[in-house]
Amino acid sequence: MDMSQPRPPRLTLFTTVLSLFLIVALLVGTAVTVTNYFETRRTALKVAAETFRSTINRINEQRLAFFTPAYLLTNVLRNMPSLQSSAGSKDAVRQLILSSLKVNPQISAIYVGYENGNFFHALSFSDSEKAFLEELQAPPLTRFAI
């Protein structure tokens, strides 16, 4: 052996084991992070889909609740004998119409037109239309007009 040339420094056993441990820890950490990312993404998509589905269901229920009274009232009133002709008395159906307008604020009016041009029209006034009622000089407690 030639003593004139210095040997390059060698890695000690401690450095080698420490380096291998760090590489394994880095690989395990990367694998856990990637797996966690995919699981979190899958969970987020599942939660978003469920939230969207429940929102759509709630909107559909509210839509049905909004339009059902008008639909049912239309079906009942179109078969009422007193509304079939313009000559008949409307007293029998007036209370049904007024109570329907009172409990269903989304229905602002009921209109029945006849072939001869006559019509029966019931209006519901909200609190925001008080100025209009005052302009008509209606009594203070007026809520409907026929």
Protein architecture, described:
- The structure is a single chain.
- The protein is mainly α and 146 residues long.
- The protein has two domains: 14-67; 80-145, no CATH class.
- It is built from three helices and three strands; from the N terminus they run ααββαβ.
- The longest helix has 65 residues, at 13-77.
Give a quick rundown of the structure.
The protein has 146 residues and is mainly alpha-helical. The protein is built from three helices and three strands.
Helix-strand topology string: HHEEHE
Poorly predicted runs are none
Please count the beta strands (DSSP E, at least 2 residues each). Answer: 3
| Span of the ends, CA to CA | 121 Å
Any idea how many domains?
A: 2
- Most strands sheet: 3 strands, antiparallel
Average pLDDT taken over every residue: 83
Helix and strand content put the structural class at: mainly alpha
Beta-strand fraction estimate: 5-15%
**Rg over CA atoms:** 39 Å
Number of helices: 3
Tell me roughly what share of residues is in helical segments: 55-70%
Strand arrangement, major sheet: 1-2-3
Indicate the overall shape: rod-shaped
